[in-house]
Amino acid sequence: MSGPKDFPRPGQRLKTGARDSMLRVDQAGEYGATRIYAGQLAILGDRHPAARAIHHMAAQEERHRAFFDTMIAERRVRPTLLQPFWTVAGFALGAVTAAMGPDAAMACTAAVETEIDNHYQEQVDALGDSDPVLADAIRDFQAEEVEHREHAIAAGAENVLGYPVLSGLIRLGCKVAIAAAKRI
Fold first, then answer.
1. 71, 23 contact by CB (below 8 A)
2. pLDDT for 101-116, tens place per residue?
3. What is the pTM of this model?
C-alpha cells in the first residue's frame, strides 16, 4: 500500500517517478484482475449463474488494462518485471477461490476491489489536477471497481465461511503486490 513517502500531500508537486510508478502498478493490477476472473471462469464455467457478471467485470478490467497499456507505451514507462508472476498468481487466486465455491469467488472480488478502491483514491489525491487524463481515467475505473465490490457483496461474498480471514489474506496479498509492482 502506498504511504506518505510514496505520494506527495494534496497540492504538492508529483514527481515523474511517482507517476511512472502509478502507471506500472495500475497496469499490473488490471492485468492481474483479468487473470483472477479467467481463473474463476475456468472453474465455474460459462453456464454458472455467476458467469455473466464475472464476464462483465472481466471486460471492464480488460478495458482498464488496455488504457494503462497505452499510457505505459506513450509515456515510455517500464512495465513491471513481475508480469509472469501475476499471470500465474492471478489465475491461481481466481481458480482456488472459485473452487471453494461461488461465494468465495465473490469474496475474492470484494477483497481485491476494496484494496483497489483505496489505492486508486490515494492516486487521485496525489495527482490532484497535475494530470487530468490519468486522474479522470482512474476516477472512472475506481467507480467500476466499487461497482464490482458492491455486486460481489450482494452476490454472497460475506456468506463464505471465514470471510473476514479470507478477505484479510487477499487484501494483504493485494497490498504486497501493489508495493512490489511499484518498484520492480
1. yes
2. 889 999 999 999 998 9
3. 0.82
Who's near 40: CB < 8 A, 6+ residues apart?
50, 54, 94, 95, 97, 98, 105, 108
Tell me the pLDDT tens digit for each residue of 78-109.
888 888 888 888 999 999 999 998 899 999 99
Hey, what domains does the chain have and what are their CATH numbers?
A: 16-183 (1.20.1260)
Rounded to whole angstroms, how far apart are CA atoms 44 and 54? 10
For residues 74, 78, 84 and 88, what is the CA-based torsion angle, rounded to 10 degrees? -70
Q: For the chain, what is the largest distance between any 2 Cα atoms, rounded to a whole number of angstroms?
A: 50
* Separation between Cα atoms, residue 50 and residue 159, nearest integer Å: 15
The angle subtended at Cα 76 by Cα 70 and Cα 81, nearest 5°, is 85
End-to-end CA distance of the chain: 14
